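Summary for the funding panel

The consortium committed to producing paired sequence-structure records for every protein in the target list. Below we show the first two records in order, beginning with the earlier of the two.
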Amino acid sequence: MSEYKSKPVPKPLLKLKEKLEQFRKNRSGKKHLPDALWKKAAKLANEISIDLVSKHLRLNYYDLKKWIVKIENIHGGTTDFLELNNVTGSHSELSTLEFENKLGEKLRVGISPGDQGTFIKLIENFMSRSR
C-alpha cells in the first residue's frame, strides 16, 4: 500500500479536493483550472507534500511544483544569500558541494581552494534558473 493512502488525509486537503471535484463536474469542455485553485493547492503542497497533494487532487506533480515556485517568488520565499567559509587544504584536495534550485535541478561541484570566484559565478547562474 502506498504511503499517502495509509496516513489520514488532512482536512484542508479534503476540502480542496471537494472544490476541485465540483469544478471538474461543472466545467464545460477543456476549461483550465482557475489560478485560485492552483494557488490553494500549491500552498497546501508547500505545507504538506507535493506528492500527497498532487495524488489526492489528481494534479500534475510538475505543474504543481511550478505553482509553488510562482507563489514563493511572489511572497518572497527565496534566498539570495549564500555563505561559504574559506575552503582550505592543498590545491589537489577537492571539497564537494551539492545544490538544488527551486525547480528541483541538482548541481554537484568539486571545488579546490583557488576556485572560489569561478564557483560563486557558477552557483549564482544555477540558482537564478529557478526564478
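The next record, for a separate protein in the list, is shown here:
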Amino acid sequence: MSQFAWDAIYKLNTLKYPLITTVTQDSTHLIFPTSFTIASTESEASYSFVLCALKKAYMKIFKQSLNYKYIMSNGADYIFNASEKNLEEDHIHLMCYFHVKKAIKRNFAKKKYRNKTEKRFCIALTIYIQ
C-alpha cells in the first residue's frame, strides 16, 4: 500500500457524530474504501482507535504490517498526531488539496494587505490554485 487518506464527515446521522472514513490508493491509482467509523468526537483518541483497528485487521487478513508511504488529511493536529504515534514506518504527511484551497481563500479574504503588490500576489495565487 502506498497512500492512505482519512477525514470525517458530519451531518449524516441524527446525533451529528463524525463518520471517520479511510481510503487507500494502490500503485495503479485505484482508490479503495478501507473503513467507516462513527465516533462520538473527532479527536486524536478517535483517530488512533481507527488506525489501530485498521492495522489489526490488516495483519489478521494479510499476515503483514500495514505501512504507508503517504498519508493525506486536513491540517488538524489530532489527525497528524494519531498518524505519527501509530505508524512505525517513515511516511510523508500530505494536506488535502481541497482543504488547502479552502484555507487560502478564507484567510486571504480577511487579510489586510500592506501594499498593492502583496494584494496582487495573493489574488494571483488564489486564481492559480483554482
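Regarding this second record: The first strand starts at residue 3 and ends at 9. The mean pLDDT is 82.
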